[in-house]
Write a structure and sequence with these properties.
The structure holds two protein chains of two kinds.
Chain A lengths: L2 H26 L3 H17 L10 H19 L9 H13 L4 H13 L3 H12 L4 H7 L4 H27 L1
Helix pairs in contact in A: 1-2, 1-3, 1-4, 2-3, 3-4, 5-8, 7-8
Chain B lengths: L5 H8 L5 H10 L3 H37 L3 H4 L5 H28 L3 H4 L10 E11 L9 E2 L2 E14 L4 E14 L2 E12 L8 E3 L3 E5 L3 E6 L5 E7 L1 E6 L9 E4 L2 E5 L7 E3 L9 H5 L2 E6 L1 E3 L13 E15 L4 E3 L5 E3 L8 E3 L4 E10 L13 E8 L3 E5 L2 H11 L28 E4 L5 E7 L5 E8 L3
Parallel strand pairs in B: 5-6, 15-16
Antiparallel strand pairs in B: 1-2, 1-3, 3-4, 4-5, 5-8, 6-7, 7-10, 8-9, 9-12, 10-11, 12-13, 14-21, 16-20, 17-19, 18-23, 20-25, 21-24, 22-25, 23-24
Helix pairs in contact in B: 1-3, 3-5
Classes of the chains: A mainly alpha, B alpha+beta.
């Protein structure tokens, strides 16, 4: 296989698997920075070892298997992270993520539409949380509110987004 | 009692929960349905991060674009300005996506050499030296195959890996083992035993919860599915520290005959009883014994299981005595040639020339207690043992056994002053009954013994070449 074909094949596989790999890593590593780092490490390792990938097996399973090792590495570096899964839990998390992979792309597309319809204030809270990566206490200071209130608001926003995603998927499937 | 709801799950995902809440969520995740719900919630978080960050990048790019809109060229577009702006927005979006893809590919398609350590990640680091009933999950490997960095998944069986630096690691399936570089490995789960010579001191085995650094030893490591790790030191000593903890006071030295345990979420290394049962299949292979059949038993590793301290009335015991001994002078032995022997210590003088590195083993039939010369029904044991390297000498007479106790005997062995060795027949023409028989195979790797206990302790020291 030529280098170009190989790259093309890898790109297709990775683009399809990346949402699930990200979900897996974000589920297992709570720090934004660490999670992003781990996803990048997985991308690099998957590409570097792409020659070893057995195309008779699901690419996602292989990528998640590599992700599991990198998550364990991340645990070693940050042992005080509350989110420390056992190997068994990591295994079962991977299985759950893989089972949901088929509809993950649809979910991501639906989320884009749902975000477009979000009120400005809600968007600002989400940006502070997921773009600026601020903890609830700093967000509260930034919007002149309380930590409890910020947490409740963020939960409500995520809940409404989750319901919006479900509705859109249901409409598209109907 | 704290209720598990989406708010708590989100806080958990963001790392903003107490230890008690984290424990509660982890327990809650044991149910498969709960894990599915959690995976969905995590997917939403990941998608939100990705989408919002991408939007921010686009927004910043368009802000730059909007600054440019004041220039005469853009103003000249006139009526088509709106369409143009939209095109510019799309162009920036695609440009950003294209750049991201290119960046991804540039990073991702670096060849192994580009990312590897100076040791050369892709080159062979170890060799599959032995396999028994091995089934690999990822790819089939054969004896003699070379392996480099990467993860090895052994579903069942026993596999010995000989590292280029001299370390020998035996895996017992199911096991997931990763080679990081020449002297750094990781056991994700399963059982291994390792024998590390001086040339590979500071050979390291990581597990999900501890790091084990060898200080010139033999040891066993087992990792359960939950990451719980046991480290058992057979010889010498190792350093054990909690994974990811660089504090010097977290390092524990564990000496031979001791064992420690730790598990996920526990920041202590706990001493536990020295139990070697789980290593008894892998350890002989690490020691260089590929197979022992019949009434032949490889003793458990550890200071209590050495010659003089351990007896068995029914089986021939195999003690691993010394590894990688450099012979500084010629060594006088009883036998060096293949064949069948009954008068082993009356055979001629044979020499193993100086300069060779050897491993030594003691095979012994030593019934509990003392036997009278005319005792009836003396124990008899027949067995066969195969080594991974050629046998270059056998020692079966009391004098030579004693002479070689110092350079080749077990450091903690108590060889006593009793008469030892393979006993000769009472007379040259007596029947074979009750006589010790030794057979060394043509390839020098297999030794068959038919030993009958007598007044002397039946012992034979086997000298095996340490490297080809």
């Amino acid at each position: 296989m030529s280098e170009n074909n190989r790259r093309q094949e890898f790109t297709q596989h990775w683009l399809a698997a990346e949402p699930s790999v990200s979900a897996y890593v974000f589920a297992a590593v709570s720090s934004f920075h660490d999670a992003e780092d781990v996803v990048q490490q997985v991308a690099q390792e998957v590409a570097r070892r792409f020659d070893q990938y057995d195309s008779d097996r699901p690419f996602l399973g292989w990528a998640l298997w590599i992700a599991k090792s990198r998550v364990i590495d991340a645990y070693r570096k940050r042992r005080r992270d509350h989110l420390v899964f056992s190997e068994d839990l990591l295994q079962r998390l991977g299985e759950a993520i893989a089972e949901q992979a088929i509809e993950r792309t649809d979910r991501r597309e639906a989320l884009e539409h749902c975000l477009d319809g979000l009120p400005e204030r809600s968007r600002r809270l989400l940006d502070l949380r997921y773009v600026d990566e601020l903890p609830a206490v700093d967000i509260a200071q930034s919007v002149d509110s309380t930590v409890g209130s910020v947490r409740v608001l963020l939960t409500r926003i995520r809940k409404s987004l989750g319901e919006c995603v479900q509705r859109r998927i249901a409409v598209e499937e109907a | 009692m704290t209720q598990i709801n989406d708010e708590l799950l989100d806080d958990f995902l963001d790392g903003e929960v107490s230890s008690e809440e984290a424990t509660l969520v982890l327990a809650w995740l044991e149910l498969p349905a709960n894990m599915e719900r959690y995976a969905l919630r995590a997917g939403l978080k990941a998608d939100l991060c990705r989408s919002l960050q991408r939007r921010k990048i686009q927004q910043n790019a368009l802000a730059v674009c909007d600054d440019d809109s004041a220039t005469p060229i853009r103003a000249a577009v006139g009526q088509r300005g709106r369409t143009s702006h939209r095109n510019v927005k799309l162009a920036y979006t695609f440009a950003a996506a294209a750049l991201a893809t290119v960046a991804c590919l540039i990073i991702a398609f670096q060849r192994p050499g580009d990312l590897s350590d100076p040791n050369g990640a892709s080159s062979a680091i170890a060799t599959v030296a032995y396999q028994s009933h091995a089934r690999w999950a990822d790819e089939q490997r054969r004896q003699g195959d070379e392996v480099g960095t990467g993860v090895l998944q052994l579903e069942v069986g026993i596999v010995r890996l000989d590292f280029a630096n001299g370390a020998a690691v035996t895996l017992q399936g199911p096991a997931e083992f990763e080679i990081l570089n020449n002297d750094h490995t990781r056991l994700h789960r399963g059982i291994l035993t390792a024998q590390v010579p001086e040339s590979a001191i500071r050979f390291e085995v990581e597990t999900p919860v501890v790091e084990v650094v060898d200080l010139g030893t033999a040891f066993g490591v087992s990792v359960g599915v939950d990451g719980e790790t046991d480290v058992c030191v057979f010889q010498g000593e190792v350093e054990v520290s909690l994974a990811g903890n660089d504090r010097a006071d977290s390092v524990q030295r564990v000496r031979e005959g001791n064992a420690v345990r730790t598990r996920s979420l526990v920041n202590t290394i706990q001493s536990v009883a020295y139990e070697t049962n789980r290593y008894e299949d892998a350890w002989p292979v690490t020691s260089g014994v590929m197979q022992a059949t019949g009434l032949m038993k490889f003793v458990s590793p550890g200071p209590e299981f050495v010659p003089g301290r351990y007896e068995d009335s029914e089986r021939i015991l195999v003690f691993s005595e010394r590894f990688e001994v450099l012979l500084e002078t010629d060594l006088s032995v009883d036998l060096i040639e293949p064949g069948q022997y009954r008068r082993i210590h009356r055979a001629g003088q044979e020499l193993i020339s100086a300069g060779q590195r050897v491993n030594s083993y003691l095979l012994q039939l030593d019934p509990v207690g003392r036997l009278a010369r005319d005792a009836p029904n003396k124990p008899r044991a027949i067995g066969q043992i195969t080594f991974n390297k050629p046998i270059i000498g056998l020692i079966g007479g009391t004098k030579k056994l004693r002479e070689t106790d110092d350079p080749l005997g077990h450091p903690q062995g108590d060889y006593g002053s009793l008469r030892r060795g393979i006993e000769p027949p009472k007379s040259a023409d007596s029947s074979d009954a009750g006589r010790d028989v030794v057979i060394l195979s043509g390839d020098r790797r297999t030794l068959s013994l038919d030993l009958s206990a007598g007044t002397a302790v039946d012992q034979i020291r086997v000298v095996v070449r340490a490297s080809e």
